[in-house]
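Example record for the data management plan.
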Amino acid sequence: MAARFVVDLTSKPNPLPHAWEHTVGSCHAPLGLRADWQEQLRGVHEELGFRHVRFHGILSDDVGTLVRHEQALLHSFHNIDVVYDALIDMGVRPFVELSFMPSAIASGDRTVFRYGANVTPPRGVSYWQALIRRLAEHWIERYGKTEVGRWYFEVWNEPNLEEFWAGTRKNYFDLYRATARVLEEAHPDLRIGGPATAQNAWIAEFLEFCEREDVPVDFVTTHHYPTDVVGGPGEDTEASLAKVPRGILRTQAMRARREAGEKELYYTEWNTSADQRDPLHDQSYAAAFVAKTVLDVCDVVDGYAFWTFSDIFEEKYFPSLPFHGGFGLLTIHGVPKPTYRAFELLHDLGEERYAVDGDHQTVDAWAVRRDRELTVLLTNHAMPRQPISREAVRIEIQGTRASPKAVIRRIDEEHANPVTAWHAMGAPEYPSRRQVDELIEASEIRTEGVAIERADGRVGLTVELPPHAVAAITIPVL
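Corresponding structural encoding:
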């Protein structure tokens, strides 16, 4: 079936909320003390528009928020203040994940990740409440009620998974209740939410608990990855993804939206897979997946936090290889991956979305207007090992007297793809500064002219779209 899409600019547009720019993810709090982490976050804020950042472990022992010294409990908020001060200075706000358990007040010694994050409930809820109360009061004093009132407070991370929570669902609900009550007492305008689950779990049960117990809840958070519901023992990520229906994340988000009801819904983690060593994360496949998914769900969710903005990430170990399949939009050296460039194209979109008439098995099209420019964003995407081919895509725009100066920006195997350049230079594990500069240059999006035809208030053009590609065609319109 040929790919043909028609846009009628005389029709009424709908809003295009940039929900994907609300928040972006990172690894854990101590990385926020690094100069390169801060530099990369500043860049994605300025170039991609991300407004909040979420990461694990502000309460973990390696931050030093609460420790036991001899017989005394000692608080030290200096390290997290350094991180949050840097965020505020660059115009980014925290999406506060209240985790993990300080070992000084933990009920057990089970941990997760290389950095030993304690995942057990508190040995007494009063200890936890005292910590949260003191933290909230400290932040209000340091940053002011108005500023802290713009933050989001999320209780824990993925408590439905044994890896991240040694207690029961009831234990988590009790922890949430204790936390929400303390934050409400600290200031009624603080925004609190949960259940911060993996796999879209517990949403209905969590909201029913909060209503029954009269517990404050301002928003719902959860996570999802396309690999959540597939895969068998020993099966690799690509084989698992091959079984996943195209568009699965929209399907899951629609279900979560129904369960959340009128509450704001934030996905505080998602990516093309949950594998932190997935080669596809570094390739144009991921860019096409990201662009399609973001535009599929942006009218369903209030925030959609990609996990993560950087490969400066150490849950297993800190890597040295520039392209190792990490979650990040940027490599450890700050080289933008194709996914970064996808978010760049998305950020450039306006906020008036026109309906697009047309359907194709692998090609999707969105038409978005900003002032006197219309951008038609195209993706050619299929799950791994599924049929996909190069497509000639025909676009027709009705109701405009357009300028003949249309341009196209591409992300695919041959465009904005630094991993290819890295292999061409011999795949150095420790690239020189000159080589890093060359990789950054190879990642850049180029702007090319594209021929258009004009007749009787219509504009037409045809472009070639290779497999696993993103293309943005921008046309001045009157």
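Summary line stored alongside the record: The domain at 3-13+352-476 is CATH 2.60.40.1500 (Immunoglobulin-like).
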